[in-house]
User: Fold these one by one.
Assistant:
Number 1:
Amino acid sequence: EPEVTQTPSHQVTQMGQEVILRCVPISNHLYFYWYRQILGQKVEFLVSFYNNEISEKSEIFDDQFSVERPDGSNFTLKIRSTKLEDSAMYFCASLRRQGTDTQYFGPGTRLTVL
Amino acid sequence: AQSVTQLGSHVSVSEGALVLLRCNYSSSVPPYLFWYVQYPNQGLQLLLKYTTGATLVKGINGFEAEFKKSETSFHLTKPSAHMSDAAEYFCAVSAYNQGGKLIFGQGTELSVKP
């Protein structure tokens, strides 16, 4: 069964450093998402991406964040200058088409900012 | 705007007992409703979803949920708990005009006692 993959599974970084989290969505999916889950809290929407552009972003997704689909298969989330409060599990998800289709999630990348 | 409230951050049942996890939603448009399960150190896996049609939906692992519009609820049930059901369960809402974005509840941790 096709699945969403994410790398790395765990990333440790120093405050102020840039990190790039990588995702490979399911190949025939058209809509891509990033969510985050701070330890012990709910899963929160960050951004959605369709047709090579951001379609919606939450208030969490400020200028420090960016997303890209550089080569038609990978989907990346970049945090330019990490803060302690960016420590969380980051999930990538993909969707074939809007409406009744199922959104599939990757296993997540645990980001730890020291 | 949409929101989800899950009553009870932690539910504990005995093996073989009924599982009932509560979810109430708020949505200004007809909602799509989902239950996802998260096992320790894993991503989110879809249990079941309601989009249109039959209000009682059956999912994987013997779970089912009923969409009750009058009560704005989508409670998750399983007649007989198994030890392997111990996990975190998230209720989520979306809508046809929301670009596939999922809004999650706080999650309910289910413990199953032998």
Number 2:
Amino acid sequence: DAKTTQPTSMDCAEGRAANLPCNHSTISGNEYVYWYRQIHSQGPQYIIHGLKNNETNEMASLIITEDRKSSTLILPHATLRDTAVYYCISKTSYDKVIFGPGTSLSVIP
Amino acid sequence: DTAVSQTPKYLVTQMGNDKSIKCEQNLGHDTMYWYKQDSKKFLKIMFSYNNKELIINETVPNRFSPKSPDKAHLNLHINSLELGDSAVYFCASSQDSTGAGTSPYNEQFFGPGTRLTVL
């Protein structure tokens, strides 16, 4: 089962790209990497997931290293509404999702 | 339309009381979950149900009893409430029911949370 480590907090200037790193060095070959975020006082929100290839959707891009030991979530043009805690997910068996402490991202005007 | 809804949003009660939190999802998902987020903001899974059957039961006091009358509903009943039960409780649902835990359709949709305060 993969365990993830993320920086505790990060700042990003509004309009700039926010790059949030995650280490998952023990991830197994068939485990996906998921990213969620939690805006203050709301339920967590799914952002994106990937296995081996880089992924992009309307919210973000996910870059996974070739060895799959780490990934980076990219918010291309951060806005104030992107201020949230971002979770890189460690998956265990049968849908059990383990949320770590995440990275608290502050987007600064 | 709200995908995952919870009621009530806030719940304030005395120690020793029994209370319930209701959760409904209109996404047609097979799997539903309860999570607890404590004051330190750690989000921990409590239970998971797949098609009304319990599949994950973490180390949770037996004062907590989930009930799933159908696959669209997963309610949480708490007996003999204690101060340490104060937290935000989130309900969630996901489509995947394969059990492999590796499906690409494993994204979870969360409700808005219920803030429980035990006095």
